[in-house]
Input
Amino acid sequence: MSPPHKGSGKAKEPGDAARESARRPLECAVFASIDDVQAGLEAQQYVADRGLAAAVFLGLSLRKPLLLEGEAGVGKTEVGKVLASMLDTRLIRLQGYEGIDIGSAMYEWNYARQILAIRMAEAGGHHVPDVFSREFLISRPILQALEGGSEHSPPVLLIDELDRADDEFDAFLLEVLSDFQVTIPEIGTIRADPPPVVVITSNRTRELHDALKRRCLYHWIEYPSVQKEIAILRARAPAITASLRRQIVEFVQRTRALDIYKPPGTAETLDWARSLALLGVDDLDEDTTRLTLGILIKNQEDLAQLHGPLLNDLVEAARRTA
Output
């Protein structure tokens, strides 16, 4: 696929032709079926169940934003990254955080350049230019995504951890998610043609607005099953033995079943597996597990709960099962 280039987003009034473009299937996706998507994800070493593959396929085909929710560390953010690789296109990432606003997410005016242009015009006796034109606008991630694609390579816009942003920010996204456009009072409407591929993630630290959810396809990513987590380790940490891989997954699965504040996600499982491989571990033991437990568990109260007889029981249970 050809690399993305700028310039496809244009300031224009809303019209039926542009809206029809947003409804057309994504021709560049080249995925004929859910199976094709699932195979494409696995080729990128992302092990996905059929439900997630179906959500991705329909999101691409219908040109609808994809909202992924689930516990931290289950692979939501990775979907956006992998999609950009699958489509051979640019990834534009917007990280959600408390206090994020339009100036950080969409656009802002280049005030320093505007003042300089006015002063230069006045000093030279020239006509003062229109300082509220596109020339003086700074594009932030959302506007970059609307303007930064081509028919063969629309970018992937990853809005990560939207739940960390203030709930008022959801309202800023409604126009973007429904019509793939931004209205700038001084300029007009800038609409993407074609629209970007949009992936939104949330850890559900707060509930997202219903109006935002209605504009998206929704999928909840569960913690992986034993067999799926083993497959993930096989793909992402191939250096470890099959026996250790099974022991790691059994230990993690049992740990998630405990009454702890922050169960480990798949990302922590991978980090732990790679760490054990670096240490030359072939089988779990209590001493090594205690030494490396901070890679898997990221909360002091949880660590305190896991030390002692409980840790030994978990290690022994994992070894017996493997």
Remarks:
- Residues 226-321 form one domain.
- Confidence is low (pLDDT under 50) at residues 1-23.
- The beta strands are 10-11, 66-70, 91-95, 107-109, 137-139, 156-160, 181-184, 188-191, 197-202, 217-221.
